Amino acid sequence: MNVIETREIIYEYPDGTKALENVNFKAEDGKIVALLGPNGAGKSTLFLHFNGILRPTSGEVVVNGHPVSYNKKDLMKLRQNVGIVFQNPDDQLFAPTVMEDVAFGPMNMGLSRDEVEKRVKDALKRVGMEGFEKKPPHHLSGGQKKRVAIAGILAMDPKIMVLDEPTSGLDPKGASQIMRLLYDLNEDGMTIIISTHDVDLVPLYASTVYIISHGNIIKEGNPQTVFSDVETIRTANLRLPRIAHLMEILNKEDHVSFGKPYPLTIGEARRKILEEVED
Ligand SMILES: Nc1ncnc2c1ncn2[C@@H]1O[C@H](COP(=O)(O)OP(=O)(O)OP(=O)(O)O)[C@@H](O)[C@H]1O
Ligand SMILES: [Mg+2]
């Protein structure tokens, strides 16, 4: 079942910019779906449709089989179900302290004080931000803000979590840690949708990949299928994962082949190289 589906959505900003041309996007229940695309492609615009912040100029957004209803009460319910972590944490964090910020969502859900406290503590721990409870968010570093913003959505325990560039601004360890957290949440049944430029991380985690360019989805499939279409990847100003790029160079320049499709991860490449060496 698709928990989120957009049907032929077109979105035009008030100034006339056509940011989405005709987008059909689906996220299946329990999957990790990645949306890749260059700057200005329409990733953030598309994501803001998933919980009704933006309303399509035409077409429809369907969540759990129901077209989104834009009255206030239904939108509130929708937003407990679909949590969105914005690309820029400054658009999200607003409370005087980290603790109050993370507590805001669960408190609005009418949970008990104890439950809210438990969730805040757990969420901050999972993003590696324990001990920052009393700090004002504007005194945090960029990466720390990002983690707190993720914790704020996490604390609401949504069924579907949408993260706009969750690893941008994080150091390598922080990025892996957040991806690992998303992986664990997904194992526990949460559907995860992320946008990213980080093509090295995508094949490790995502089961479905979409490529968006100039407001159009130009490719979709599993990572192996999508990254085999090198031409489309480059047309969209994206690149292959480093490992696949190395395999491509070895193949084309040095006529050393480890077979196609090119391995996308260190693990796969290692296996293929060892197979060759041992022959
Ligand atoms: N509030 C706005 N008003 C008018 N045009 C906008 C607005 N927000 C975004 N756009 C335009 O819509 C298009 C899509 O922007 P969007 O932010 O969705 O891209 P993106 O894929 O998220 O890019 P990035 O990788 O830089 O985050 C761009 O051409 C952008 O200039
Ligand atoms: Mg964006």
Automatic annotation (TrEMBL):
It holds the Pfam family ABC_tran. Residues 4-239 form the ABC transporter domain. InterPro entries: AAA+_ATPase (IPR003593), ABC_transporter-like_ATP-bd (IPR003439), ABC_transporter-like_CS (IPR017871), ABC_transpr_CbiO/EcfA_su (IPR015856), Co_trans_ATP-bd (IPR005876), ECF_ABC_transporter_ATP-bd (IPR050095), P-loop_NTPase (IPR027417). Keywords: ATP-binding, Cell membrane, Hydrolase, Membrane, Nucleotide-binding, Translocase, Transport. It comes from the Archaea. CDD domains: ABC_cobalt_CbiO_domain1. Gene3D superfamilies: P-loop containing nucleotide triphosphate hydrolases. It is found in: Cell membrane. SMART domains: AAA. Its main location: membrane. GO terms for molecular function: ATP binding; ATP hydrolysis activity; ATPase-coupled transmembrane transporter activity. It is a peripheral membrane protein. GO terms for cellular component: ATP-binding cassette (ABC) transporter complex. GO terms for biological process: cobalt ion transport. Belongs to the ABC transporter superfamily. Probably part of an ABC transporter complex. Responsible for energy coupling to the transport system. Part of an ABC transporter complex. Responsible for energy coupling to the transport system. This is ABC transporter ATP-binding protein. It comes from Methanobacterium congolense.
